TrEMBL record:
Involved pathway(s): Phospholipid metabolism; phosphatidylcholine biosynthesis; phosphatidylcholine from phosphocholine: step 2/2
Primary localization class, coarse: membrane
Keyword flag Nucleotidyltransferase: no
Membrane topology qualifier: Multi-pass membrane protein
TM spans (from-to): 141-159, 218-241, 261-281, 293-314, 320-340
Protein name per Swiss-Prot or TrEMBL: diacylglycerol cholinephosphotransferase
One cellular-component annotation, GO: endomembrane system
Similarity comment: Belongs to the CDP-alcohol phosphatidyltransferase class-I family.
Entries under InterPro entries matching the protein: CDP-OH_P_trans, CDP-OH_PTrfase_TM_dom, CDP_ALCOHOL_P_TRANSF_CS, CHOPT
Domain of life, source organism: Eukaryota
Enzyme Commission code(s) on record: 2.7.8.2
Amino acid sequence: MYIRQSKLRHLKEYQYSGVDHSLVSRYILKPFYTNVFIHVFPMSMAPNLITLTGFFFVVVNFLTMLWYNPTLDRDCPAWVYASFGLGLFLYQTFDACDGTQARRTGQSGPLGELFDHGVDAINTTLGVVIFAGTVNLGQSWATLLTAFASLCAFYLTTWEEYHTGTLYLGLVSGPVEGVLTLCAVYFITAIKGGSFWQRPMLETLGVPSSILEKVPELLRGISFVHWWLVYGGLMLGFNIVQSSLNVIRARRAKGLPAAPALAGLLPFFLTWLAIPAWLSLRPLILTQHLVPFLFFVGIAFAYQVGLIIVSHLTKSSFPFLNVLYLPILVGLLDAAGPWIRDFTAFYVGKAFGWRSALGDGEFETAYVFACLGLALGVHGSFVVDVITNICDYLDIWCLTIKHPKVLAGEKKKN
């Protein structure tokens, strides 16, 4: 069981705490959600079902991408990109309305936060693949770097909420402005084509040649998508610092040391040191099987995020261990053996190391798919077990409303 029976009582102490400083959200999106779109959903529809329905739009986008562009480096029909933009916008809208629906129907509770964040965690990986295929990044280091940045930003938010008790969104955030930017990218791609983003940005934007001549040649030829990677790296660095400062302040306010909390970043960053090391030794995975590999990594990440959220809801200790990170370590050690033998033979004069059990071929590919199957099984069991325990303890249902909210007029009449 993923939740100890002694910790279940903390579920009834749950109170959502969130801060959203986004001006776009405050003056445009929230009025649209609460005054217009929320009325699309009947009062009998459970909030979690709204979340799941919105997620299906992204799943359809993902499957469409795999059908038209499985290698992530081809142009698709214009309507495909337009469907990506529409699907992502609907996902964002449904995801934002589930909280309002929970308050309307009196169904607010810890299961909603777990369900919402769990779906968002999986959606992050699917979104990376869709974006990479849209801008023709291909199965490359750039796609892997995009996955790292996206998953890291989400991990930081979850880790920060665990220690501060508050979900913090700044003036510019991924769930609001980031999603809207991606929607704009998809709609522009429907007009310009996926290859458009591989063009040099400065030249394409019409920067005068007199100015271009003064720009270093290295920067002059950088494409749109690589400029985005630079920008994303800078924003990620800012988020790491900001989230860390928020956690340090929260720990000091409680009279607790900050070092144990900061150690919660190690599982993620150590794993992402092992991943590129493994792929550099096994380039076949990177160049031919990156999509299933990212899917495996994404599910392992969603499992880790789920463990953190459950620990937050039940006031348990921070989960440092994740069994799904072990296959990554095993894959790295298997690939590193021959490299270590060659390295020591050349520089030491005597070979030390071990032979690879998988090799660099079909067995390595089979291992990646086995890791994916393992991740699906472990995360699937986690989802079923946690949802069942929470529903049983709180006497609720997950995708339907067990105890409908009684309005004031009806209560008085009864």
